[in-house]
Structures are given as C-alpha cells and as structure tokens.
Amino acid sequence: MAIDRPRIQLARPRLVLVTFGTLLSLVLSALDSSIVATAMPRIIADLSGIQYYAWVTTAYLVTSTTVIPISGRLGDLFGRKRFLQAGTIGFLVASALAGLAGSIEQLVAARAVQGVFGGFLTSSAFASMADLYLPATRAKIQGLFTSMFAVAAIAGPILGGILTDTLGWRSIFYVNVPFGLIAFAIVAASMPSLRTHGTWRQIDVRGAVLLSAGLLPLLSGLSATRSDGPTAVVTLLLAVAAVMLGAFVWAERGVPHPIVPLGLFRIPTVRVAVAVSFLSAFGMFGSNIFVPLVYQGLLGLSATQSGILLTPRMVAMVPASIVSGQIVSRVTHYRWVSIAGLTMLAAGLFLMSRVGPGSDERDVARNLVLLGIGFGSNQPIYQNAVMSAVPHEVVGVAASQVQFWRSLGQTMGVAVLGAILAFQVGVTAPGGAIVSAAPASAAALAAGLQQLFLVASLVVAAAVLIALTLREVPFRGSRAAAAPEAAAPGAPAVAE
How far is the C-alpha of 457 from the C-alpha of 484, rounded, in Å? Predict the structure, then answer.
C-alpha cells in the first residue's frame, strides 16, 4: 500500500526547523557509538578492568539494537514526538551517569542505559520522516539522515581524541548534554504532537518481554564470540535466545496489537529490504573492524597512517548516500541503483581479499572508496521502500525492522568473520581485535584476512541476487499534498 501524503503538513520554515532538531537527536545516538573508541585506553588506565574493555562499546550496541523494534511500535501507537523527547532526556541522564562512573562496571551499566534511549532516538528519528515528508522528498531526506552515521564514524574518534587529551575522557559523555538540550528544545517547539488513538492497553507487554529476552542473550552471545570464542557461556546464551525468540514468534500469532506484526514479512518489499539490509551490513560492517589490521598487520603502517587512510571509505559514504536519495526520488526502477551499489560493495570486498603484504596502500584506499560508495548508495533505498509499502499506522515498526536487521547483520558479521580470522591466527587481543603475535604468523594473518574478505564479498553477492527480486513501490507522492499546513482528507488531527 503506497502512502501518498505525510501525516503532519507544515510550512517550509517550520519543517526545516523540526528536521534539524530531529537530525540533531539522531546525531547524538550515532556519535556516541564511535566517540568512545579513542578514549578507551585512558578509561582503562583510570578505571582498570581491561576484561570489560569491549563491553563499554558492546553494551551500548546490544541494548540499542534490542529496543529499536519495540520503540518503533510504540511510536506508531503514541506518536513520535514524545519518544524523541523522552529518548533525548533519558540519553542525557545516562550520559551524565557515564561521565560520573567510578568503576568500569558502572560505566558499562551506564552505557547499556544510554543504548536503550539511543535506540528510541534512532527509531523515532527515521520514522518521523514518514510523518513529515512526501515519499519523493523523504528519499532525499533519508539520504541526508543516513549519511550522518558516516559523518559520526569519521568525527567520533577524532572528537573523542581531542576531548580526551584536552578535557579528560569524562568530557566525551558530558559534551552530549548541551547538544541534547538544544535538540530537545527544537523538537519541543517545532514538532506538532500528532493525536493518536493508541492506549497503554494496546502495548503487547508479553511480546516486548519475550523479544527482549531473546535479543539480549543473542546479541550478547554473538558479541562475546568475537573475543572469547564459542565458550559454554556463549553456547548457553545462544540456546536461551533460540528458545525465547521461538516463544516470541509463537506468542505473537493472534495478538491484536503485536509488538512486531509478523504479517509485515508477508509483504515482498519488506522481506527483500530486511534481507538485503542484513546481508549488506554483514559484509560491510562485519569486515569494517579488520581494515586497520590490513594497514598495520600486513602493510606495516603506523596507527596514525592507518587512521588517515581509513577516511576515504567513510567520506565516500556521505555523498553516495545523499546522491542516491536524490536519484531514487526521480526514477521508477530504483532497484537498479541498489544493485549497482551492492555490486560495487561486493567488488570492493573481493579486491580487499586480494590484498597481501606487498600491496600498495593506495590500492587499499581505492577499495575502501568502492565500499563507501556501494554501502552508502543503498542506505536511503530500503528504508523508504518499506515506508511506502506498508500502511501508515505501522510505518514506525516496519522502518525499525530495517534498522534492526542491519544492526543484527553488523553484529553477526563481526562474530562470524572474526571467528574465521581467529581460526587462522589464533591470538585475540582485548576488545576482540585479532593481532599477529610474531613475524612467523604474518602468512596466517594474510590468509585469514583474505578469507574473511572473500566470505564478506560472497555474502554481499547474495544480497545482489535478492535485490533483483525487489518489487519497486513508487516513492513519488501527490504534489497536491504539499500545500503548507493543509489537512489531508482523513488524516489524523494535529495538536499544536
């Protein structure tokens, strides 16, 4: 079912303001997943607890991924504005607690709470675009929104390093507070409150509990696999996840207002979107953490040189995402844009599998540009295809599924590809990074890296084949619906 009209129609100046506030809220969440990495050595030196090194980042990713599908459904029931506001305030409180942490355990706990509210921010920010924009315009705006993750990936480590060196590591959490308050004020002043007919009795509490009980051990187990290997604890976590997720699927059948309407997956566009999102994230982000090892372990470059040579990938993602959003809003057969991008991504990963100790770092940088363009060009497509293929009353939970499966693909990619490398090299450093222990292991390191990039390229090649089956839902909406502040027939009322 194509959606031709936005639910909230605003004059252009107000629309620009609310979009900026929503974008700023999203940047808070996106930046916090990358800004911590640079500060971790200083944090460990101050708080100790190196055994929890990886979990300072992982705790955030696990809880934010878990809450995304739940927050998407709640936004559909009660409106996006209140969850953007609540998510922002909760995120700022958790940021302050992280800055005040007196032990590594307290910091991990605060990061987990941050992730919960970060998930609300991410889900609500993306879904609010369906309330504010026509489908044609939405594709362009989504390109801008998704490019912010690339910007955050570039700026986060740099900003984290500057703040840590000048003001101390605690400042990387406190810096969220002024920006978050600005975002809250803009959203509060400019975004209308959409009246909904949702009630708290419609919340599928049992479904939410079962889904959380399945996702938390699943993501925790997958995250632990990359640093600890398939231990008994990991096996137990994955077994519990399988049971809980099976119970969730069984319990959701026949529920009047399910937390995740399983009927969504009967829509061909939704099935293709989540599959491609999962596989492309598996290949892109699963291999992402191993690129520095190529530069430093195979090519013998310094950490500084490695950091500089990583930027082409993320820099390429930003214009690719924005340009892709412009293109798909103007063409009918936008699946070919996706296929072209995925092919570039697969090609870049395949070329990375050919890198060896004698390779030129400029060739690696070229490969990373292919990765950035390939992945970035796909970001606006599937989110908008799903939003245009489902009824508006479930657009939030449907859009959150794309984000969720993308995050799950990232986590599983890191676990599986990390296991491939660990099998070849067999040495794991704190945080799950595989390192070469001695010159004699250089050949094993090269073989492991080549294998994991080859597997990643094959996974993305499978995404290309699935993308060929996409049923294109038109993004272009009715131009008549674009009149400022006009009320669409049958549209819900807006409370100012």
Answer: 46
Could you confirm whether domain 261-479 is CATH 3.40.50.2000? no
Write out pLDDT tens, residues 75-118: 777 778 888 888 999 999 999 999 999 898 999 999 999 989 98
Q: Give 458's contacts (C-beta < 8 A, 6+ positions apart).
A: none
CATH number for 1-199 (one of 3.40.640.10, 3.30.420.40, 2.40.30.10, 1.20.1250.20): it is 1.20.1250.20
Domain boundaries, the chain: 1-199, 204-256, 261-479
DSSP H/E element including 214: helix 205-228
Instruction: Please name every residue paired with 495 in a beta bridge, in sequence order, or none if there are none.
Output: 193
Global confidence as pTM: 0.76
Q: What is the pLDDT of residues 174-217, one digit of tens each?
A: 988 888 899 899 988 888 876 666 667 777 888 889 988 998 88
> What is the DSSP annotation of 285-302?
HHHHTTHHHIIIIIS---
CA distances from 23 to 27, 320, 425 (A): 6, 18, 42
- The amino acid occupying position 220 is S
Looking at residue 11, its pLDDT comes to 79
Is the model's pLDDT at 453 over the cut of 90? yes
Q: How far apart are the first and last CA of the chain?
A: 29
Burial letters for 81-118: b for 16+ Cβ neighbours within 10 Å, e otherwise? bbbbbbbbebbbbbbebbbebeebeebbbbbbbbbbbb
